[in-house]
C-alpha cells in the first residue's frame, strides 16, 4: 500500500514545500551551543535594548510577563541542515518591546548571557517576525534550548535566534557576531541558502 508521509507521525517528505533547499526534516530537537549552558534565575534575569542616545530600556522577568504574550507556530532551520516544522512557542513580540524605543540605527547586535552574539537588521525583528520566547511546546523553555528566554527569528537560520538573550544593542552599521566572524553569512536566509560568507 502507498505510504502517505505528510501529517503521519510528524514526518513529512523531503520534497515538502516548507523545507528550504539543502535541509532535511527532523522531529528531534538537537541542542547546538558554542559553550556551556548558563543558568540564569528569573529573579536576576534582565533584558535590555540600548540605543545610540545612551538610553537603555530594561525589563525584569515580571515586567516582561506583564506584556501581551503571543502564540507562535513556525518552522526552524539550522545551518547544519536540520529543519523542524510546526514548532510551537510562546513569547513577546519584538514589536511590543520596541514600541517605546527611539532609534535611527538600522542594525542590531543580539547579546546573550554567556557572551554569544549575532547580528540582524532591525527590519528583520519588526513586523511580527521575531519574539522573545519563554515557552516551547507548552512548557517553560529548557535551559539547553535557551531558557529562561531566547530570541526567535525563525525566517533566518537558527543561529540568529540567540539563546539566553540578555539584550539588544542598536548598531549604526551591520557588524558580524560570533558565528559571522567565523565564516557564517552576515544575513542567513535559508531560502537562498546563505550559509557561509
Ligand atoms: N547564546 C547562544 N545562542 C545560540 C547558540 C549558541 O551557541 N549560544 N547557537 C545558535 C545555533 S548555531 C543554533 S542552530 C541554535 C540552536 O538552538 P537549539 O540548541 O535550541 O537547537 O541556537 C543558536 N543560538
Ligand atoms: Mo546552528
UniProtKB/TrEMBL annotation:
Pfam families per the record?
Answer: Oxidored_molyb (PF00174)
State the residue spans of region: Disordered: 1-23
Q: Which InterPro entries match?
A: OxRdtase_Mopterin-bd_dom, OxRdtase_Mopterin-bd_sf
Q: Where is the Oxidoreductase molybdopterin-binding domain?
A: 35-179
Q: Which domain of life is it from?
A: Bacteria
The identity of this protein, by name, is Sulfite oxidase-like oxidoreductase
Amino acid at each position: 500500500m502507498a505510504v502517505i508521509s505528510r501529517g503521519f507521525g510528524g514526518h513529512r517528505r523531503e520534497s515538502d514545500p516548507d523545507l528550504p533547499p539543502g535541509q532535511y526534516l527532523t522531529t528531534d530537537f538537537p541542542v547546538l551551543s558554542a559553550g556551556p549552558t548558563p543558568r540564569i534565575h528569573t529573579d536576576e534575569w534582565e533584558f535590555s535594548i540600548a540605543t545610540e542616545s545612551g538610553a537603555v530600556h530594561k525589563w525584569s522577568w515580571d515586567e516582561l510577563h506583564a506584556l501581551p504574550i503571543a502564540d507562535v507556530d513556525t518552522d526552524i532551520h539550522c545551518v547544519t541542515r536540520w529543519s523542524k516544522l510546526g514548532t510551537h512557542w510562546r513569547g513577546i513580540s519584538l514589536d511590543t518591546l520596541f514600541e517605546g524605543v527611539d532609534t535611527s540605527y538600522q542594525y542590531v547586535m543580539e547579546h546573550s548571557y554567556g557572551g554569544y552574539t549575532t547580528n540582524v537588521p532591525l527590519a528583520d525583528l519588526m513586523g511580527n517576525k521575531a519574539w522573545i520566547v519563554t515557552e516551547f511546546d507548552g512548557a517553560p523553555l529548557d535551559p539547553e534550548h535557551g531558557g529562561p528566554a531566547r530570541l526567535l527569528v525563525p525566517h533566518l537560520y537558527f543561529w540568529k535566534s540567540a539563546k539566553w538573550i540578555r539584550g539588544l544593542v542598536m548598531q549604526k552599521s551591520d557588524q558580524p557576531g560570533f558565528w559571522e566572524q567565523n565564516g557564517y553569512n552576515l544575513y542567513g536566509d535559508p531560502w537562498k541558502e546563505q550559509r557561509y560568507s
